[in-house]
Each structure stands twice: as structure tokens, then as C-alpha cells.
Amino acid sequence: MKRFLFYVIGLFILTAGVTFTIKSDIGAGAWDALNVGLSDTFGLTVGSWVIIVGIILIIINAFLMKAWPDFLALITIVVTGAFIDFWLITVFKNWQIQDVFMAYAVFVAGVILIALGIAIYLQAKFAVIPIDGLMLAIHSKTGLSIRTSKTVGELLALLAALLFSGPIGVGTIIITFGIGPLVQFFYPTFEKMNA
């Protein structure tokens, strides 16, 4: 039950953070910018693209780890995609931020929520989001730290987001290099709570 709570609460917080960064218009995280770009280019909701891109990543991660695809990760991406659509389409559909100071405040809150959400849901030791699966695969294969592995994954997504004209800006760069260290900062606190 404790693990389940870490999992659901973590993903709920994480997806709220993603929505904040998208709505701030300062620049979404690379993976989120990719999903928004794909949504704008081909249609379907952002949450739907979270699921489609997630399935592709599950296959890539399986190849990198020379293992069977993590089919349980499908549950994680479906939940994540549903939560993102819940925040974007139901809760904040008509929310327009006019003030620049407010936009930056919302963006900063979003970044903190993303890192917090990742640090919390990882404690469940359940199927990780394929993006974080990629981070762990890079970490396992290269011996790079979690922080550096996360950054490498973000840079790969950034290149893909550029191809589909995703909402890239100053915020994207901040998230690309800032999320890894922030997750590493929050992680030990929740690890102790889960001990």
C-alpha cells in the first residue's frame, strides 16, 4: 500500500509539474516539448503521445538492457498520459498566463514538482516511466551517475523536439540540465521515508 501511494502520488505531482512548465510558455522539458510538438504536428492529445513515445522507449530500453520489454511500464505510461491530459484538458484548459513574472514563477514551481514527483514515484520500485528507464539503462551501461544519465536522455529528446517544433525555450535548457541534480537532491529524503 505504501509503495502504491508513493507511485500514484509521485506521478500525480510529476504530471502537474509537466503541465506547469508547458503552460508557463518559458520552454517545456525536452520530452514534454517533443510530445507537445507531436500533438501539434499530427493531432492526438499530449497524453496520447506520452503513451506512444513511451512504447517506443520501452522497446529501446529492452534493446539497451538486452532484456524483455518492461510490459509493466505500459501501466506507468498510460497513468502518466491520463494524468497529463487530466491536468491539461480538464483542470488548466483555459488557464492563460499573461504576466512574465507569473510565467517564471509557474515554471519554477513546475520544475520543482517534476523533480519531486520523480523522486517520490521511484521509491515504489515499480515500473518506471520509460524516460526514466532510459536514464537507468544509460546509468547501467555506462556507469555514469543518475544525474548525468538523465541529462544525456534529455539531450536526445531535445534533438527530437527540435525536429517537431516543440515548445523549446530557455526553460528547456534549465530543465535539461537542472532536473537530474534536483532529483538527486530530493531522492535521499524520500528513500529514508520509504526505509
From TrEMBL:
Coiled coil: none annotated. Keywords: Membrane, Transmembrane, Transmembrane helix. It comes from Guptibacillus hwajinpoensis. The chain crosses the membrane at residues 5-22, 42-64, 71-89, 101-122, 155-187. This is Membrane protein YczE.
